[in-house]
């Protein structure tokens, strides 16, 4: 714990991401500082959340989304003190929220000395700039927040290079839009003038060079892991997939006795880990990897290509679902969509409903920071959820894939899970490698 906070302090001493977006990092980069590691929130920072749902979105849904954003903010290290919601058909082009709402946010931020405002969507470079000018605090959008958490978590060389690539790809268009906008607005005035065209060009070139370098580096790392993966021919590969925080790493640890970091934070895992598992003398490789989330920036998916290869190359996917989560069905849909995006959707899949110990028919009331009743006049509470038995019946009937209900934490139904894995893995051996005798793969590898 002490180590973690020391690491944080160290890394916050680097230029912050907002400085980056403000353009300062552009200059730091131009001076050859290659360490792009930064964090959105230092400890004890307070954050205000802003969501602009469209008019049809139900209040309860909006709060669930804001819960997730608050969870992300807390994971990044900030304390959420307030949530602002404005229903609009379309976000305001200039400042994302309308003028009146902006005034409200501004007053709150000034009054409470909040250190940042986090938006549940991505902001255009000019929205970012305008909001910064109006609110005079750090402005963070959803992509930046997620990239930032990834940056805090990435451990392996590949994951770090992938995160850095995502950071620079985020930075590049903002470098441009930012300064051209600033120049236009200030008419090239003196006091707070940004760098001239030449400097911007230099910054852009530095960033592009770095992007090219990172892509090469990732290709190199990919070649190495490809060689590693080739050595695994003849061994069935199983990948744990699922929304973030559903219990993938916990299950990995149970099945493989590995020590994968699991905790109640989003994106505890951003590297992939592969372990040899032997069940009933049947060996296979099990990989635990980064969780998915709604509105995951495409750029981030792209830069995490090597990590996602572990999923793409698997013979069998184990889709873990947190059934106790109020939006678990939407989470299933998000995971399936993301699997489609990375072209891994048509693999055989087992659906594992986890956290049955925590499932209640009461709709969840757990809220993260800054919660306030949105519509106190709204008498109509959410409908009770189906029983676990009803859910089982529905899902068994609805899906062709095998379905199982477990609690990794309470070790409930784990034997059933193991048996299901053994059945499916041995079927895959027969189908995929009819001539190969199951071999013992090398000892576990990271
Ligand atoms: N109540 C309950 N909690 C669980 C269960 N399984 C895991 N958890 C908890 O859920 C949290 C997330 O677990 P992880 O294993 O880190 O989840 P993950 O899917 O690997 O998460 P990311 O790596 O962040 O995508 C941890 O606090 C676990 O202790 C379960 O069956 N019941
Ligand atoms: Mg994990």
UniProtKB/TrEMBL annotation:
Its cofactor is Mg(2+). Residues 1-25 are annotated as: Disordered. It comes from the Bacteria. It is found in: Cytoplasm. One of its GO terms (molecular function) is metal ion binding. Mg(2+) binds at residues 249, 269. Residues 236-429 form the Hflx-type G domain. Residues 1-15 have a biased composition (Basic residues). GTP binds at residues 242-249, 267-271, 288-291, 354-357, 407-409. Keywords: Cytoplasm, GTP-binding, Magnesium, Metal-binding, Nucleotide-binding. One of its GO terms (cellular component) is cytoplasm. PANTHER family: GTP-BINDING PROTEIN 6-RELATED, GTP-BINDING PROTEIN HFLX. GTPase that associates with the 50S ribosomal subunit and may have a role during protein synthesis or ribosome biogenesis. Monomer. Associates with the 50S ribosomal subunit. Belongs to the TRAFAC class OBG-HflX-like GTPase superfamily. HflX GTPase family. This is GTPase HflX. It comes from Hymenobacter luteus. The gene is hflX.
């Amino acid at each position: 714990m002490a180590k973690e906070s020391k690491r944080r302090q160290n890394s916050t001493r680097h230029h912050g991401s907002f400085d980056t977006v403000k353009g300062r990092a552009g200059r730091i980069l131009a001076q050859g500082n290659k360490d792009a590691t930064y964090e959105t929130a230092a400890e004890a920072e307070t954050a205000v959340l802003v969501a602009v749902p469209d008019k049809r979105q139900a209040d309860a849904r909006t709060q669930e989304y804001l819960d997730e954003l608050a969870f992300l903010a807390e994971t990044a290290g900030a304390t959420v003190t307030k949530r602002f919601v404005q229903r609009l058909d379309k976000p305001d082009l200039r400042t994302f929220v309308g003028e009146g709402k902006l005034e409200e946010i501004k007053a709150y931020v000034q009054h409470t000395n909040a250190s940042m405002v986090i938006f549940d969507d991505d902001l255009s470079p000019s929205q970012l700039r305008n909001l910064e000018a109006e609110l005079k605090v750090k402005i963070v959008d959803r992509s930046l927040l997620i990239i930032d958490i990834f940056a805090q978590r990435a451990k392996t060389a590949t994951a770090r290079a992938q995160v850095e690539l995502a950071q620079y790809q985020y930075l590049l268009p903002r470098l441009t839009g930012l300064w051209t906008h600033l120049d236009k607005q200030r008419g090239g005035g003196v006091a707070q003038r940004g760098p001239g065209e030449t400097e911007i060009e230099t910054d852009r070139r530095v960033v592009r060079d770095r992007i090219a370098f990172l892509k090469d580096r990732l290709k190199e790392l990919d070649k190495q892991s490809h060689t590693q993966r080739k050595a695994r021919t003849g061994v069935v590969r199983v990948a744990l997939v699922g929304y973030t925080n559903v219990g993938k790493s916990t299950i990995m640890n149970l099945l493989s006795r590995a020590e994968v970091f699991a905790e109640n934070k989003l994106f505890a895992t951003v590297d992939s880990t592969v372990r040899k598992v032997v069940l009933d003398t049947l060996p296979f490789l099990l990989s635990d990897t980064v969780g998915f989330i709604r509105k995951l920036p495409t750029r981030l998916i792209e830069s995490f290509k090597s990590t996602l290869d572990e999923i793409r190359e698997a013979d069998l996917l184990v889709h873990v679902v947190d059934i106790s989560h109020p939006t678990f069905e939407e989470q299933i849909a998000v995971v399936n969509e993301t699997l489609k995006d990375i072209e891994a959707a048509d693999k055989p899949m087992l659906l594992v409903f986890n956290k049955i110990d925590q499932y209640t028919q009461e709709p969840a009331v757990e809220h993260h920071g800054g919660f306030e009743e949105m519509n106190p006049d709204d008498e109509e509470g959410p409908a009770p959820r189906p029983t676990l038995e009803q859910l089982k019946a529905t899902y068994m009937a609805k899906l062709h894939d095998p379905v199982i209900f477990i609690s990794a934490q309470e070790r409930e139904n784990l034997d059933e899970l193991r048996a299901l894995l053994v059945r499916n893995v041995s079927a895959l051996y027969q189908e995929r490698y009819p001539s190969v005798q199951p071999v013992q793969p090398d000892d576990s590898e990271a």
